[in-house]
Description:
Blueprint: H1 2-48, H2 52-78, H3 84-93, H4 98-122, H5 138-161, H6 166-180, H7 188-194, H8 208-229
Amino acid sequence: MDALSELHHAGDRNDKSSLARSLVAEGLGTAYLLIAIVGSGILGERLAAGNVALALLANALSTGAALYALIVWLAPLSGAHFNPLVSLMLACRGDIAPRVAAFYVPAQLAGAVAGVALADAMFDMPPYALSSHLRSGPSQWLSEFLVTFGLIGMVWTCSRLRPSALAGAVAAYIGAGFWFTATDFANPAVALARAFTDTFSGIRPIDVPGFLVAETLGALAALVLFRWLVPNLR
């Protein structure tokens, strides 16, 4: 009985250690994602000399490339969600335990906020400054709904049917979303963190709730449709 009890406690310690590593990987990856988004936005705007299209192109290419590298790097450690909606979707599907998703979300939020400060500091900007960048209105909310719907649908489908293509598909989709939508957040952690940088990539704090609602609705719509299109056969 004592041996069985010791094995049980050892398993608990291993589970806790594994979860801790996953949380650090999620926080680290989300931080680097925001460093890529905000940092490339700052440098792109500076080098573009007023050409917004050129700055946006630099921002999109850097973000897409960094996202691909981060997924390949950290997926073996945590799944490389970097997005509360992705974690919650996978919990709904049964891929991860709800308890794990509940821990992932604050790790992602903390990483995102830290990433913004690091990106600003690299370019001699104040680590935190509330953004004055206006992002609001029906067109932007519709864009945010659609880009989030597509992201969640893509993760649901590719993670089931084409797991080896997931990193490239997600990175390409997010990079392209800078250009085919009026917005390209698709991530509550990103939206909240970008309110704390008054730079090219920022969003006014007052505009964040509209984005969060649009992202949540987009994720829910994708969950309903893709649960039917690609049923969970396990």
